[in-house]
Amino acid sequence: DQQVKQNSPSLSVQEGRISILNCDYTNSMFDYFLWYKKYPAEGPTFLISISSIKDKNEDGRFTVFLNKSAKHLSLHIVPSQPGDSAVYFCAGGGTSYGKLTFGQGTILTVHP
Amino acid sequence: DGGITQSPKYLFRKEGQNVTLSCEQNLNHDAMYWYRQDPGQGLRLIYYSQIVNDFQKGDIAEGYSVSREKKESFPLTVTSAQKNPTAFYLCASSIAGGSGNEQFFGPGTRLTVL
User: Fold this and answer.
1) SS3 for A69?
2) Among A18, A56, B10, B45, which is most buried by a count of CB atoms within 10 Å?
3) Across the A/B interface, how many CB contacts are shorter than 8 Å?
4) Is B3 within 8 Å of B27 (Cβ atoms)?
């Protein structure tokens, strides 16, 4: 039972354009969501999070949107830069769980 | 300089041997976690601990064991019962295990069983 799904294994974008990474979840008990960025052979680094009481959170070039009725969230990167090329994971968590559930990841490639 | 350290970066073992992966944090975090990453499978939770001397199984605990005798340390033992141990192992910690708490990750250990 995959509670968090990232259905696009990869995404390719031109430098300067918008990157949109998508994530779907099934567990209604999740009350916060996080996005992580990961380079090969390194640990993931935290990017941005959103509480389930919000529908948008912005931090510089990164914006996360949450649609609770559709159980869908997305990460927008504007403008995309070659250094953004990495694997992006979304994760869901709940107050009662004490842990996160991660999606499979999406490989983002930003071409110069 | 606070953070999470995992050692070694690369580890090779023969089939049938137990091996212990180290994870240490000096962030004064209560909660610690072990994940495994395989290609195309994302991060899967092996074990987690919300407080010293207590830990819970994650989604793929079979063939693994942990201990949490000290707040800063959460070693993971990959036993010979683990059918497919070759993977990239990641340790993480957070202030507490509850809502909204970001997890900080170590650099990972690549285990290869020959």
Assistant:
1) coil
2) B45
3) 65
4) yes
Q: DSSP for chain B, please give it.
A: ---EEEE-SEEEE-TT--EEEEEEE-S--SEEEEEEEETTTEEEEEEEEEETTEEEE-TT-TTEEE--SBTTB--EEE-TT-S---EEEEEEEES-SSTT---EE---EEEEE-
pLDDT per residue as tens digits for the range B18-37: 999 999 999 999 999 999 99
**Which tokens is B90 given?**
């990641």
pLDDT above 90: residue A89: yes
% of chain A surpassing 90 pLDDT: 86
- Preceding amide of B8 cis, omega within 30: yes
Question: What are the CA-CA distances from residue A28 to residues A3, A23, A32, A33, A102 (Å)?
Answer: 10, 14, 11, 12, 15
Please indicate whether, in this complex, the C-beta atoms of B48 and A43 are within 8 angstroms of each other.
no
Chain B residue closest in CA terms to A87: B42
Question: Residue B8 class from Cβ within 10 Å (0-12 exposed, 13-18 middle, 19+ buried)?
Answer: exposed
Confidence (pLDDT) at B93 = 95
- Inter-chain touch B40–A6, beta carbons under 8 Å: no
A82 — phi, psi (to 5°)?
-55, -35
Which chain A residue has its CA at the smallest distance from B99's CA? A95
| Length of chain A in terms of residues written | 112
CB contact under 8 Å between A104 and B4, yes or no, is no
